[in-house]
Structure of Cytochrome c oxidase subunit 2:
Amino acid sequence: MAYPMQLGFQDATSPIMEELLHFHDHTLMIVFLISSLVLYIISLMLTTKLTHTSTMDAQEVETIWTILPAIILILIALPSLRILYMMDEINNPSLTVKTMGHQWYWSYEYTDYEDLSFDSYMIPTSELKPGELRLLEVDNRVVLPMEMTIRMLVSSEDVLHSWAVPSLGLKTDAIPGRLNQTTLMSTRPGLYYGQ
């Protein structure tokens, strides 16, 4: 659950979100090192005289500043591609839930069971009880099992929507006439808010 003035991500509750957090830290460290190096070089240029005249003709320097960024991009791209394939992989789901976006609510249907569907409306601000969160509380929550692979089929009836649960690392667009799918697996019990 996010809290006011939070600077980082929400706590990870799925293996995919844990991988995304590790990738974020990995990439942030690379960006920090590059920024530090650039700041150091700029400060050197401002404080010292550049008297070395053969620097402009050095083929070694040009080779280094061509190959080094390519290596850095590979160090970022390979983990990113691995996570993209992990997010798209579906391994024998135990449960399938169909999610349909409507203008002001979501409809959920447990497709593995007959006649198990419901609508989920946001609770108006005037009807909230103490401790409930504005624009996040709903009248019917989706209940899902823990430590099981679940396939979510997401689509829309009318306009574009976005179905997201940040602590699970999920965000899928609901597009009319198109069926998108994503998988989730929660590693611990709890109440996870989405939008």
Remarks:
- Strands lie at 95-101, 105-110, 117-121, 150-156, 161-165, 170-174, 180-184.
